[in-house]
Structure formats: structure tokens, C-alpha cells
Amino acid sequence: xxxxxxxxxxxAESIHIMREVAATxxxxxxxxxxxxxxxxxxxxxxxxxxxSNLPFPLMHVDTTWKFREMIDFRExxxxxxxxxxxxxxxxxxxxQGIGPFSHGSAVHTDVMKTQGLKQALDxxxxxxxxxxxxxxxxxxxxxxxxxxxxSAQHRWDPKNQRPELWNLxxxxxxxxxxxxxxxxxxxxxxxxxxxxxxxNIPIVPLYLAKERPVVERDGMLVMVxxxxxxxxxxxxxxMKMVRFRTLGCYPLTGAVESTATTLTEIIQExxxxxxxxxxxxxxxxxxxxxxxxxxxxxxx
Amino acid sequence: MPKSHHDKSYEVxxxxxxxxxxxxYLKEQEQKSxxxxxxxxxxxxxxxxxxxxxxxxxxxxxxxxxxxxxSDSKKVGTQGGDIDFALLVDGxxxxxEQGITIDVAYRFFSTDKRKFIVADTPGHEQYTRxxxxxxxxxxxxVILIDARKGILTQTRRHSYIVNLLGIRHAVVAxxxxxxxxxxxxxxQKIADDYREFAKNLNFSxxxxxxxxxxxxxxxxEPSEQMSWYHGPALLGLLETIxxxxxxxxxxxxxPVQWVNRPNLDFRGFSGTIAAGIVKxxxxxxxxxxxxxxxxxxxxxxxxxxxxxxxxxAVTLTLEDEIDISRGDVxxxxxxxxxxxxxxxxxxxWMHDQPMLxxxxxxxxxxxxxxxxxxxxxxxxxNVNSLEHEAGKxxxxxxxxxxxxxxxxxxxxxxxxxxxxxxxxxxxxxxxxVTVAAGMIDFGLRRATNVHWQAVDVDKATRxxxxxxxxVVLWFTGLSASGKSTIANLVEKKLxxxxxxxxxxxxDNVRHGLNKDLxxxxxxxxxxxxxxxxxxxxxxxxxxxxxxxxxxPFRAERRMVHDMLGENEFIEVFVDTPLTLCEQRDxxxxxxxxxxxxxxxxxxxxxxxxxxxxxxxxxxxxxMTAEEAAxxxxxxxxxxxx
Lengths: 300, 641
Fold this sequence. Notes:
The complex is a heterodimer.
Chain A: H1 6-24, E1 28-31, H2 36-49, E2 58-61, H3 68-80, E3 85-88, H4 91-95, H5 100-124, E4 128-130, E5 147-150, E6 178-181, H6 189-199, E7 210-217, E8 220-223, E9 238-243, E10 256-257, H7 263-272, H8 290-297
Parallel strand pairs in A: 1-2, 1-4, 2-3, 4-6
Antiparallel strand pairs in A: 5-6, 7-8, 7-9, 9-10
Chain B: H1 8-20, H2 22-31, E1 33-41, H3 47-57, H4 63-76, H5 86-89, H6 93-98, E2 105-110, E3 114-120, H7 128-135, E4 140-146, H8 153-164, E5 169-175, H9 184-198, E6 205-210, H10 234-240, E7 253-255, E8 258-263, E9 266-272, E10 277-279, E11 283-287, E12 291-299, E13 307-309, E14 313-318, E15 329-332, E16 338-349, E17 360-364, E18 369-381, E19 388-389, E20 399-412, H11 419-422, E21 423-427, E22 434-443, H12 445-449, H13 459-466, E23 471-476, H14 483-496, E24 501-505, H15 506-511, H16 521-540, E25 544-548, H17 554-563, E26 569-575, H18 578-584, H19 589-594, E27 616-619, H20 625-640
Parallel strand pairs in B: 1-3, 1-4, 4-5, 5-6, 23-25, 23-26, 24-25, 26-27
Antiparallel strand pairs in B: 2-3, 7-15, 8-9, 9-14, 10-13, 11-12, 11-15, 12-14, 16-20, 16-22, 17-18, 17-21, 18-19, 18-20, 21-22
């Protein structure tokens, strides 16, 4: 008699969730952020529907400030695996010249990411969107359902969530309303890395340490990914061995100094580290409950 | 800063292993066993503090989180500047402000022996439903009791619910022992009380631990304050509790979730195995169709498997081309699940609006969503005494034993044998909200034995003889809106045209068929259900049926609509403003309602839900009753007369 391992259980649960959406939702989409969690989610989706192709498209909401290596990785991965990817950019934001330096991280994230996502969901009329969020990431996520209801305005009402029992998911909605579905809810950061290791899942090389040009700014190591980064007086990009624990817009994502150049070294480093992975993210610190607020407004 | 109780030498040893033998470490991690547990108990029993403490002591708190915890503790903490562990887990802003936990939160931690997922659930009575949510996926319940207070209503309620949901192992954590001077008598007294209470429950093990989450006594390490206690600390207990079920003996079940058909050459059935084991070559049966075949292959993207076990998500292909779709269950040929459209179940009601027998709801089982209704509430359970009480409806957080009738058959096992095939949720048809959770006890034989008597003279032949198309004209509207007057005129006009009709009037029916019913919501639903059934028989007899009932709820009007065949139901909305109805008031009912002499009067203290898309909409403020009747005739003339 085999007893399933922890990761096998998590894998099966995620696959069950994805199949449930494919079988019962009219027009689902998988949000793909190019990060490690997205990579795991996509890998699981390919397993869930094998030997069929994915029964839904992927969508990347591009803020135009992602690391160049992320975009390269996305293009290559999509082409290699013959995937159907929609890329959406908030063109209103582009026309207004919104960016993290000119408008600050809060406005940039709201317009290019949150508003951009809502725009895209409305444009294609998706009734369910998979996201790679995990409950261990952040306090308000710990309380979110796997099938999380969104009003027609894309709002999340944390006080009024549908009870979610067993694996019986209630995804019934009215026209205009939608579901955000989180198949990785019960995975932890360690589970993700272990699974990437075990399954040889390709990830963006930015997760591995390499000499990269960075400047230290407000306690954060910012990588000089292109010439849009305005250097302040006295700032000179310096080559440092760094890597990233999470990936987002390059000016908002802090690097950590590291010598971990292989997957196992990353895991080693992660296990011995003393700070949480969201620590490198500028947007979480705006206020105490900032993530919960953003989520109520429609941020993923 | 409080000292960590975690074993330092273990930590050092672990770090060394991570540094020197990461592959070995990962292999060990992979093989760790896994436990899901739930913490429950009354508000202020210290649940959040306990989980915060477990996370803290098992080194799951990072430096940045700790820094923010320390600053939060000073700002809003309740521990006089010391670390308030509850703040770690009470994640939502509203909770931090009010100091309560309003929703179930899932937490993750691991020790060198096990990985854990904790469902931290709310203690307040109005959030009992969130607690049931957490319990549905847990193997063990940690029930907290405040040593100063002993067993409370919520302790009983939560114990009952976790037991009802099939959790077999209870750990009763008698907390805040520091506040009763670590007294053994206090602990023993509460343990005895609990054992007495739990006699009526079916836990296979109950373990008692005296502890203080705040001070760290008996959480990860044995307490120095309670040398009289010889059992393991809470964490040690959770690491060793044996939750393995006898899965090998269970019959194979796989609800089909999704049909996998990439091309004409491949037809697979994808699903998660709910119970048992399946091997290549096994003889299986598909239900409810009853067709059988053999397993040709067990397909995964990592290659075909020789066998697969419960909880694995796989794709099966079969030797024979048999028609199987989502909603079907593939099962072991010799030991089959049952098929029924009527069953008895325990139902936990989770919504503010009460459960009304007879009202149609959606029932979602593992892979099928079917319309149906609760036929009968046999009894409610008083969670304090566990005694059975009579009742007509179930309110928020109430539990009752019900019989359920579905519009379509489902495949099931009873909940205690196969939880995945015996559980369901109930969904409100209009708001789409999850209103209840249920666990099937057994199928009712009636469903399989009573067949509809097929007769040779049928609806069509009867209607043909009368040269008309049978239909129900369903008049709905407020009291004194003119339903009966208009319906009466329509019937007269139809009679003149030589049509066979029957008028069912609200008042008349209440003197006979429905004289046992009052005006509370549950009775209103039953009133309409009976009228619907009578109308259905009359339509079967070939008649044009006119009904004049306030019928205030959309759900019941839809229920009657659903009972009848295609084009056999015409909803006529007699739309008269409340003020006008009150002016007319032919029976003086509005006056009585104003004086408070009639309770549950529609339009006053009982709601009227107007039709969203009536087939015929009569604005009676602008027309006479005669004109309204003509409008109805004009509308049905072409298709029905």
C-alpha cells in the first residue's frame, strides 16, 4: 500500500481544482506572472489535462517594467510548449506615461497591474481566473478561499466569503461576476521549491545568483535592468552577486546578495534565511493591512 | 522577549544537515507524514495565541515578521507590550481592530516528524459555519477550553460539529492553566466533565493536555509548572497521533470530473480517486448507467501507472467504448455505491435566511449539481444537550436531520464510509450563496420502489379531446391587488369560448387542502408547493388552470414553473402599488395589519419579491379589471386556445 507524500497530495489537490474549473466554468483563464509560483501552476495544469492541451488560455498582465529576462523566458517557454498566451498592457496607463519613478510604486501598481488586470478580465469576459497565490505568503491570503468570489466590480469581500467545505467548490455566479481560483493555496514556499527541484521545472534565471548591476536605494538593492532607471546623485551601479526571491517590476523588486547558483543552493539558502520572501517587495509595506486593501480593490 | 522552547540542538543539527547534505534533507522532507488539524473552542479561549505560539516556537516566524509583530504588539497588543501571538494569525484588519477572529485561516508549519496544516477557526457563535468549513478537511480537532471557565456552549457545539463532520481524534487542550495556578484538580474536573459530555459522541480517541499557550507550558516542551502531568506536550501529541485509515479495504470510487478527449483516438475519464485502489485490468462499473468495462490504462503525464490509490488525480481509459460523462462515478464492479434521488442526511445550516422544507435549492455533490428540496425536517439537534427537538425550519448554525428529494439521481455512499461520496453543499438558486453543508446517512427506499404509474390515456390525448392546450395561468401580486377578480373574469371568458378550466383561489384552498398551514415563511412555501402539485395534476387532466395566490417568493414560483412541462406555466404579475391595495382593502386586512393584529402580512412585515420577467405584466393602476382580463386572453389566444 502506497501512502502519498505531502507533495503528491498537494499536486493532486491542485489538479482537482483545475479540472473542476475546466469542467464547470464557461470561460476560464490562467494568470501567468512568469514567477516561480506561476511556473509551478502551469506545470500542474499541463499535468492535469494531459494528454489534452490546456483547455484555457494563459494571460500575462504586463506592466512594461518587468525584468527583461522575465519577458525572454516567457516568450521562449510559450513557444516551446505551444501555449496560447494573451499579453495585456493597460494602454491608458501607457498613454498617461505611468511608471514607478514618475508616479510612485502605489500609483504604478494600481494602474498598470490592478486596473490592467480588471481591464483584461472585462475585455475577454473571463468568468474564472487562476492565480498562483499561496496562503502562507501573507496574513490576509491565509483566510482566502480557494474559489474566491469577485463582484462585477472585481471586489473581494473578506467578511462575506462562501463557506468552502471538503472539496466541494461553489463557483456559481451571475453574469459579470467572476471567480479567482487559487490552486496553490495550500503550498508553502518550501513546497514550491522542492517541487521545482523534484520535477525539473524551468524557472527564470533571475532566481539564481549572478553578477548583476545594482544600486542600493532606500535599503533595497535595485537592479539596473535598463536605462529607464534614473540614477540619483552619487549612485553608481555596482556589479554584485545577487539573486531574487520574488519577481515583479524590476524597480520595485529588491535583490538579495547571494552565492546560490543552483536550485539546491537556493533551497539551502531559503531554509537558513531569516526574512520572509515578501520582504523584498515595496508594495506590501505601504500600510499594515495594505495587501488586504489591494485585494478588496481587485489586486490579485 | 520570551524564550523559544524549541530544541536548540535539533535546530543546529538541522542547519548542519541543510548545509552539508541538502539532498538527504530534501529526501527526508519528502517522506514526512502530514496532518491537518483544526483548532476550535469558544472566543477568548486562546486559539490564535496557541497557533502564533506554535509558529513561533517551530521557528516559522521570520525576522521581518517578528519585527512587525513586536511593533504591532506595542501598538494594539493585549499583553502589555509583551509579544501578542494572536496578532500573527488574526490577519484581517477588522479582526485586529476588534481583537477577534472572524474567518478560518490556514497556517502551515512543520517539525522534524510531520508537516502540519492548521485551520484556525472563529470562536464566536455567528461564525460557527466557518468553523465547520475548517473541520471538513481536518483529521484531528484541538478543542481549547479556558481552565477558568470550563465547558461552554461553544465547546459543546464545536465538539458536536467536528464529530458530525467525521473527525475521529479530539485533543482537548485545557488552556490558561497559569491563571488557575496550574492546579491538577481544575484540569481533572474539566476532563471528567468533557468525558461525560462526549459519551454521546463518536470520537475514537480523546486526549487531554493541560497547558498555557501564552506562557508556553506543554506546547512544545513539557511544563515545569505541571509535574503532575505525565503525558506529552501538545506538539509531541500532534506529531505522533495515528490517523491512518484502513484505505486498503475500501471499495474503489472515482467520480468523473472531466472527460479527457484530445483526439478521436483517446477517450479518458479524469478524476480524483475518492476511495480505494484501482489497478490496470480491474473490472469496473459506471453509475448511474450501470455499464461495465475493464481499466485499460491509468494515464498520468509521468507515464501510465499500474495502480492508483485514494486522493490521486488520474485519467482512466477503458477497454470498451461506454458513454460516461461528468457526474458519473466509476466504481469497483463487485462493491458498488448506491444510486438514489431521495436520502436522509444531517444538514448544517449556514445562512441567515432559514432553511424552508419544500423550497428548491441546488445540491452539489462531488461532481454533480442537482435541483431538489428538503422534504421533511425530522428533528433539530440541541447542541448543548444533544437532544432532539421538533422544528419546521433550520436557522443559522443549526443542525438537523432531514429527508431530501432531488430532481435527478446521484451516486453516493454514506458519509461515514466514504466522505467524498457522502457529502454535499446546498446553494441558493437566486443568490448563488452556499447555504448549507450536508452528510448523507442513507438512501430512502421509496425512491427506488415507487414508480410513476404509466397510463395509456395521457395528457396529450386528454387535451386533444378538449381541443385546448393545458396550461397554468399563475396570478401573483399583493393582497387586494385584484388577482382573484381578474382571474375570475378570465375564467368566465374562457368558459364562454368553450374551454375547460379550473380556478384555484388562495382563500378557498386555505379552507380545505391547506387548512393546516399558517402564514410563516415555511408554511407559505408548503402552501405553494401543494398548489403547484394540484395544478400539475390538473394540467395532466388537460385543463387550463388559473391560480390566484400572493405567492410572494420567486423561488417558489420558479419551483412550480420547474414542476410543469415546457410552455405549461404563464406567470401573470398583477402589479398594483401597495398604497392602492391598501386603499381598496376589501377584506379589511391592511387595517388589521396596520394595527398589528395580523403578523407576517405581505408588504408589511413579510416581503414580496416581484417577478423579474413576468410573461404577462398587468399595470392595474391604469386599467380596469375587464381590460386586464382581455389583455390576458389576447396574450394566450394564439398559442393556447
